[in-house]
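chain below, 352 aa
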Amino acid sequence: MVWVFALALGLWGLGVLMKAPLQARFLMLGFLYIGVLLVQIVLPEGHAAREATGGSLGEWLVLGGLVAIALGYRVILRQIKARASLVEAAREGKNPAQTGTFSAGELERYARHITLREIGGPGQKKLKNASVLVVGAGGLGSPVLFYLAAAGVGTIGVIDHDTVDLSNLQRQIIHTDEAQGIPKVFSAEARMKALNPHITVKPYHRKLTDEIAEELFAEYDLIIDGTDGWDIRDLINRAAVATGKPVVSGAISAWEGQVTIYDPANDAPCMACVFPEAPQPGMAATCSETGVIGALPGTVGALMAGEAIKEIAGAGEGLRGRILIFDALYAETRIIRANRRDDCAVCGGQAD
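prediction:
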């Protein structure tokens, strides 16, 4: 039996060195336990392997039962604590999103995130406590909003003045045929809440203007630009620089899309550093003018959502100072560098 415990300790240590998640480590121990039981059952009494693993099936069954009871108690205790937190929050007039605690259902919902060592429990809590504003509920906004909702971002704002049109449905997957004529922000809100009732959605059915942009941006941790025109992008950039908010920006046209993070507060360029002047007429056509393959905004929007999740959870390396370009027609991607300009008319000198 001592030999088996030594092997178990070795497997656990190997898991620690490899930074394997707890689930994987417990799984290895489970396979070891099953192997020992098979040795005890299959081999005859007195066999060397059976003697080396303890020599008694009964002892291993008792040990397995005790471990199962302990694990079951741990699960039950966790559920009781989660329910107690909910009761306490209810007594204080708060909801789970305000307290930062997770219900048993949320733990199950976000299990695949929590298993990732780059996110884990602390990262998922950051997502729950985060607030993100998405500008635009169209082609790019649709997958972004879906994935932020599914990821458990606690507060998601969405601003768009448009209504759902039949021509949108080829690519704007958050809307349905029945939603035609409904403001996009309310259509999106309904689909997001249907996907995840544990989040707060704030719809703003209005046009983003200079008068409201800075005040609105100040309420959120992160801005996501899913718009498709120079003027609105310029407005978003100026308001984000003024309020010190990072912007996850995406753009699409025909078969090509791009994603980056503008954040001069952290020494990354703003949009004006990269594109200091408005494009000449006819050089930056919208999707309605050039057309767009329906799956492209899904790909680019998913990349944008991924960057937002990484940004909030503090995982990996984001696209600050880099622009990812995706060519769907030829299935190619490339990354180009983007540097901050000290003489930028919008952000020059603000991080010094």
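Residues 319 and 334 are 12 Å apart (CA to CA). The longest helix spans residues 57-91.
thats it, cya
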